[in-house]
Design a protein that fits this description.
Chain lengths: 168, 580
């Protein structure tokens, strides 16, 4: 079940915007994944209201069905993601080449606990992924679209410092 | 076309069976299954129904279509081993409090674990227990007992088109959940999810203890009334055939349990017809609010209130038979017994889980006291009879108490899809024409498999089309027709459960045999044929009640007691997303 009240405060969704997205995809059930991707692009996550709204507007769907699809795929997030989405590869190659120390360094730097998706200031979100297919560059970190190869604790600290500076 | 295949070396005929499992069952054999339900699509989730097919290896019989000449084996070393492993793995993730489980004794997981000789669970108990959702007045959801067979998800989607329950998350984290706790969700309480659940993950919210405590209380007089469908299903819990009418035994059992008086909801059904037939004829005359929707099914009512509040005007304002019977009893029985209302407890025995919700509706209360104090489902009554140590089959049939126990055949057929419409037509015809309807059997309205049928009725030159639907998915299609202006019918009878109340969520488990619906319905039509009066307005007790108390159908007094109003539930629903 979803959190209900707490989460509804997080984001005010625009039904107008959602209708625009639904319109592009013809309000069709078979386009649900594409619709959710667009919504996630808009809000950086899938707000509860948005999922309920989509579930009531598309014929043959219900809010629970939309939630089912949204929670099935790892690409969808039910919590707001940060401006910078950090993905630490923890596939076999990256793991043996030290992805865990890199992950811990990021957590320490951004003051994030294990299991925490987004930093307090909403700037960074952090998750591990299974394999990015760049094993030759292990360990790999991807921030938004940019690939950072052969990371170490020191190297990732420099990267994060740069990003933090840009934000100031 | 008839083909043949071989099951364990025996040549077996088949025709249009959709899968091997149906062929196996038709041949009088069986394999275990959790997820296969003949009225739902095949899902192939549980892997219990595996069979060995020569040349094809292990196959799940619920998903494999039959082919001519196939040689299949049901009980081999391999299938036994696989089924046993499946059971062990399911049990590894299953709450092990079997003894105290609501479903104990009626649980398929328990049954097959016993049959397959599971003496020990090799895996450690699960380390995380999820909270139980008991927010609904009708249904309790215990995710720790769910085996993810998906039967409930399919029932909610394929019967009701409502999909309140869905799979959430993936892999080992998968759970079946509503988007809000059931009590705060759109769930219409039909209980079809409970009816198809093989384990104790979805059960009926029990009121057994409430009723026992009233029976035990010497200051309370406890009375009951029994819905039509209960009488043709309860016997199944005591080894009797589906459709066998046990109303006499039920009346006797209730008195043995300690009920002071026993009435019949069929009397209330006759009252419903008096009011609803009159209302229908009025609407036909004025042409307003047509088609008229029947209002006996509490799941259907909640569905309209939540999903289509703009169509509430179509609903008949008549309360359901239960909610007509109870206030009449509440008004008149205390006078008969010389007691206060507060010392009377009214228990309704229903095939339905949604009736528990209906009883709680503020419209079904007077001065803040519910007219129906408690609703027991057929299953709950069966359990109480067992608790009381009553040998049900040996009971001498008894008669209900008078005067609110008499009923016509029209009242009794309320339990089957099409029955409410047929009862209404029998009375409306005579009210409208003043003539006697000679052939009261309107067979075109009957049926438990065809979920939508239109029947044209000729009321002396006036042609009226009555549509009968069961399941809310079918009802939704009719609502769309009305909204688009294409609807050609003047009355819409809706029952949310497939086949009607005889297949309600509170009935004894029957999800593995789709023929039981027809057998129960046949039991009701048999009683209808055998009763001396078959039209609601010919029920002499009903006539007397109008003469002495209610005056005439749709009178002021009748409106006060027997009619209701509906609520727009969309307004306050989470579905109603504020536009920003």
């Amino acid at each position: 079940m979803l959190g209900g009240a707490d989460m509804s405060i997080a984001t005010k969704i625009s039904t107008k915007k959602l209708d625009e997205i639904l319109q592009i995809y013809d309000y069709k059930k078979s386009n649900l994944i594409a619709i959710l991707q667009k919504v996630q692009e808009e809000y950086r996550y899938l707000p509860e209201e948005a999922m309920i709204y989509i579930g009531t507007k598309i014929e043959g769907l219900s809010p629970a069905t939309v939630l089912g699809v949204a929670t099935f795929y790892a690409q969808f997030s039910l919590e707001p993601k940060g401006k910078f989405e950090i993905k630490v590869c923890d596939g076999t190659a990256c793991h043996v080449r030290g992805s865990m120390p890199v992950l811990n360094a990021i957590r320490q730097k951004l003051n994030m606990k294990e299991g925490q998706l987004t930093s307090e200031n909403g700037l960074f979100s952090l998750e591990t992924v299974s394999c990015l297919g760049a094993c030759g560059l292990a360990p790999v970190v991807v921030i938004n679209e940019k690939v950072y190869p052969q990371m170490t604790s020191d190297a990732i600290n420099i990267v994060l410092d740069t990003l933090l500076k840009e934000e100031e | 076309m008839t083909n043949t295949l071989f099951i364990d070396g025996k040549e077996v005929e088949y025709t249009d069976e959709p899968n091997l499992l149906e062929v196996i069952r038709k041949a009088g054999m069986n394999v275990p299954t959790f997820c296969y339900r003949p009225d739902l699509t095949s899902f192939g989730a549980c892997r219990m129904c595996v069979v060995e097919v020569e040349g094809r290896g292990i196959q799940s019989s619920c998903t494999m279509p039959p082919e001519p000449g196939l040689k299949i084996h049901l009980n081999t070393e391999k299938t036994r081993r696989i089924r046993k492993t499946v059971l062990e793995l399911l049990l590894a993730n299953h709450d092990r409090s079997c003894l105290t489980c609501e479903k104990s004794g009626d649980c398929e997981l328990q049954k097959y674990s016993e049959e397959y000789g599971i003496k020990k669970i090799r895996y450690a108990d699960k380390d995380e227990y999820l909270p139980i959702d008991d927010t609904s007045p009708s249904i309790v959801r215990d995710p720790n007992k769910c085996i993810l067979c998906g039967a409930c998800v399919r029932a909610c989607t394929e019967f009701q088109g409502h999909s309140v329950l869905g799979f959430v998350n993936r892999g080992s984290k998968t759970v079946v959940e509503p988007i809000r706790p059931l009590g705060q969700s759109d769930c219409v309480n039909c209980g079809q999810c409970v009816a198809v659940c093989p384990t104790g993950a979805l059960t009926i919210k029990s009121n057994i203890d409430d009723v026992w405590s009233r029976i035990t209380d010497p200051t309370k007089r406890v009375i009951a009334h029994i819905a039509p469908s209960v009488r043709v299903a309860l016997g199944e819990m005591f080894g009797l055939e589906p459709g066998e009418n046990t109303i006499g035994k039920i009346d006797a059992a209730l008195r043995k349990i300690g009920f002071d008086m026993v009435f019949d909801t069929n009397f209330g059904a006759d009252l419903t017809i008096m009011e609803e037939a009159t209302e229908f004829l009025d609407r036909l005359k004025t042409g307003k609010n047509l088609p008229l929707f029947t209002s006996c099914c509490p799941a259907w009512i909640k569905y309209i209130e939540t999903m289509h509040p703009d169509m509430l005007n179509h609903l008949s304002s008549c309360k359901s038979p239960m909610s007509m019977q109870s206030p009449v009893l509440v008004d008149l029985v205390p006078k008969m017994l010389g007691i206060d209302r507060k010392d009377l407890t009214v228990v309704a025995i229903m095939p339905c889980t949604a009736k528990k919700f209906e009883a709680l509706r503020p419209e079904m209360s007077q001065n803040g006291v519910q007219d129906t104090d408690f609703v027991l489902t057929t299953k709950e009554l069966g359990k109480m009879i067992k608790t009381a140590g009553i040998d049900f089959n040996a009971l001498e049939p008894e008669k209900p108490d008078s005067p609110f126990g008499e009923y016509s055949g029209a009242g009794t057929i309320f339990g089957a899809s099409g029955g409410v419409a047929e009862a209404a037509v029998r009375t409306a015809y005579e009210f409208a024409t003043g003539e006697i309807l000679k052939d009261v059997d309107i067979k075109e309205l009957r049926g438990t498999t065809n979920r939508c049928r239109d029947v044209e009725i000729d009321i002396k030159g006036t042609k009226v089309v009555v549509r009968v639907v069961s399941t809310l998915k079918e009802a939704e299609k009719s609502l769309k027709e009305i909204k688009s202006g294409k609807a050609q019918f003047q009355m819409l009878e809706v029952m949310a459960c497939p086949g009607g109340c005889i297949n309600g969520g509170g009935q004894p488990t029957s999800c593995n045999n789709s023929k039981i619906k027809a057998e129960r319905a046949a039991g009701l039509y048999k009683e209808d044929r055998e009763l001396s009066e078959r039209k609601s307005h010919m029920n002499s007790s009903v006539q007397k009640l109008y003469q002495e108390f209610l005056e005439h159908p749709n009178s002021h007094k009748a409106h006060e007691l027997l009619h209701t109003v509906y609520t727009d539930r969309l307004k306050n629903s989470y579905r109603n997303i504020e536009s920003v």
